[in-house]
Structures are given as structure tokens and as C-alpha cells.
Amino acid sequence: MITSSSIQSLRAGVIGTGFIGPVHVEALRRLGVAVTAICDVAELGTKAAAKLRIPQAFSDYRELLACPEVDVVHITTPNRFHAEMSLAALRAGKHVICEKPLAMNTRETAQIVKTVRATRKVFAVNYNVRFYPAVLQLHRLVAQGELGDIMHVNGSYMQDWLFKDTDHNWRLLPQEGGKLRAVADIGTHWMDAASFILGAKITSVFADLATWHQQRRRPLGEVQTFAKADAKMKYATYKVQTDDFASVLLRFGNGARGNLGVSQVAAGRKNCLRIEIYGAKKSAWWCSEEPEWLRFGNRDGANETAVRATPAFGDGAVGFMDYPPGHVEGFPDTFKMNFRAIYSAIAGTDNGLYATATDGHQEVAVCEAIIRSHQSQSWTKV
Question: Do 118 and 190 share a domain, yes or no?
């Protein structure tokens, strides 16, 4: 039996201090895991260590990997560094939690999968959406056949943080984040959640990608994720080579069909993931902007609404909820619960719920198929 004390005996080091790095730190501390080191270029690591009260700061990630006070490495850097750092961490004997997407292409992700098998270390990709209680419950309902055979899945992931042509972040640059942006950045979260719920991989896609801002204005200086433009800031114009929004048709290995809309230029949508599962018995749907509610649809009876942590909701998230109904568990809690599952696996009990390196490889393969499909305007196998 894994106890909180066995998880708390593990020590974490975080590489990257942007938007998501401190989210990892906060979630780990809520679990009682000590964050003993942090790393970023120049003085960024030192500043983050002082702000977050972390004892050791490094400017070279290799120094963090050599630190004996680090058991688990969290990689929260721009995508182009994921493969290099993941492989180095595994070879240094560390367990790894890497942000998504796992790497820039399937050649890199395949090498990571191979190295994970060779080193026998726990490796996870941070698809935290799996750990919303409603998503865990949907996973349980499908596995138990409560919805019947799944016919089709519908959904979207919408944000507006890149709505203006002055909005900027490294994710906009293909050399930093990859050829796909909206699909790879947030669409993969939806696709992983859908595959997790269905227990089936995406096998083929038909994709249409679009870029609304053909040109954007880049601030002359560093900009953090979700930061707002400054009226006094100076800009340089550049050509946009990544997708602002997309529509993707999907086929799953269990025969289900799906359709996904993704956008980072959807005014008013701050972080809205919607997923609807349509089965032969009944349907179920959920939205991340209302995380406490799981809704069910019936053909001949009244539709139903269930509140998290009540009998009507179900027990699929047992062990991954800490608060009673009405005390909302949302985005930050998914990190805590994901890390609870991963650190439990490191300590000796693997529940199979978190995303592995193999899952991360699959998502990048789907992204590559989406690019090919858009280019050929045809159904493309993953």
C-alpha cells in the first residue's frame, strides 16, 4: 500500500520557470513533495528559486540532472528541448514528467520510448486533463459499458489568449514549438482525453488547419504565456507559420467517429474544453469551465445532471478527489492528482491512469498525420 509518506520521500527538480513550471511546483507542494531544485537560463532560475523558496538554482539543466537531491525531473521548457532533456534525465537515472507534446517529431519520441524501456524508469507526459474527476468517471463509464457501444465523440478546445496580432509567445514559432501550434498545444489535450475515455487510439484523421493572423507583431523583449500586451511596447512584424484554429475529423480503433474544433483566437473563451460522448444506451458530456458537473442524455427519459463527489456522479474518481461537492476542483487540482498517480507509480503502485511515453509518442504521431492530412486534404492513417 502506498502512503503519503512514501510519496513525500521523493524529491523533485523542475526545468523551466515560465507559466507552467510554477504550476508544477505548487501542485507538488500540495502533495508534500519537496522541490529541491529549479533550472532556467541566465538569472531566471535564480529569481524563480528566490520567489518560490527553492533551495538550489541552476542555469544548466545538466547540473540539475547531476544533483543527488533530485529523484524526479519535471520538464516544462519549450517543446524543442523536450527530447534532449528527457533522454539526458533518463540516462542520469531520474524518473521524468515531461510537458506535452513529448517532442517535435516521432523520431524523437520513438527514441524516448526505447530509452524508457531500457532504463525502466517511470516516465509520464503531463496530460493533466485526464485527472478532472468527470474525465475519470467518463473513462469508468465507457469501460463498464454504461453508455453502450460508443458511436461518436464531439468536442472542442477554445482559447482567446492569441486573439490579437500583438499577442505573442514562443509557441507561435515553429522552431520552438513545432509545425503545429493550436492543435499540438491544446488539441492534443482533447485528443488524449478522448482516447483515454474511450480506451481506444485515434487511427486516422481528416484535418483542415487555418491561420487567421497571417502576420503578427512580436514584442521586442521576452513575453510570458498569457501575458497582456503593453501599450508602450515596441514590436517587430513577422510571418505566422503555425495554425490559429483547426477542424479535425477522427476515427478511433473501436469504430467510433469523432470531430474536434480547436482555436486560440476564440474571443471570450479563456480555457474551454468540451467533450460529448454518444453511446448506444445514453450520452454524457462535460465542460472544463464547469468542472463540477457531469451531464447525461437519454432518448426516452429526462436528461440528468450529476455533481462531483455525489452518488449520481459515480465512483470513477475515487482517490483523486480531496474536497466535498460544491468545493470546486479544477485546473490546478488536475496537476496534483496526475502527480499523485505518477509518484505512486514511482513508489511502487501503478494504476495505469497517467499518460506514458508511449501515449506521448501516439499523440505526436497523430499530429504528424494531421499535418499530412491537411496538406493532401484527405483521410490519413496515423
Answer: no
**Same domain membership, residue 261 and residue 247:** yes
Q: How many CB atoms lie within 10 A of CB 267?
A: 9
Per-residue pLDDT for 181 more than 70?
Answer: yes
Whether pLDDT at 1 is above 90: no
> pTM score > 0.90 for this model?
yes
- How far apart are the C-alpha atoms of 275 and 150, rounded to whole Å? 13
Q: Taking the alpha carbons of 299, 304, 309, 310 in that order, is the dihedral positive or negative?
A: negative
**Using one digit for the tens of pLDDT, what is the confidence trace for 254-268?**
999 999 999 999 999
Kindly state whether residues 217 and 234 are assigned to the same domain. yes
Here the cell at position 161 is 489568449
Q: How far apart are CA 39 and CA 15, in angstroms?
A: 5
Give the C-alpha separation, 154 to 233, whole Å: 41
**Taking Cα atoms as reference points, which of 66, 65, 67 lies closest to residue 75?**
65
Lowest mean pLDDT among 200-209, 225-234, 319-328: 225-234
Using CA atoms, how far residue 298 sits from 198, 291, 305, 316, in Å, is 19, 21, 11, 21
CATH code: domain of residue 377: 3.30.360.10
CA atoms of 182 and 94, how far apart (whole Å) = 31
User: Where does 186-330 have alpha helices with state H?
Assistant: 188-198
- Distance between CA atoms of 165 and 238, rounded to whole angstroms? 10
Q: What is the pLDDT of residues 70-120, one digit of tens each?
A: 999 999 999 999 999 999 999 999 999 999 999 999 999 999 999 999 999
Residues 163, 118 within the same domain: no
Contact 142, 150 (CB under 8 A): yes
Residue carrying the nine cell digits 475515487: 318
Quick one: which H or E segment has residue 263?
Answer: strand 257-263
**Cβ–Cβ under 8 Å, residues 81 and 24:** no
CA-based angle 225:108:157, to the nearest 5?
40
One-letter identity of residue 25: V
- Cα–Cα distance between 278 and 260 in angstroms, integer? 14
* Structural domain containing residue 371: 130-331+355-381
How do 150-158 and 257-263 pair as beta strands?
parallel
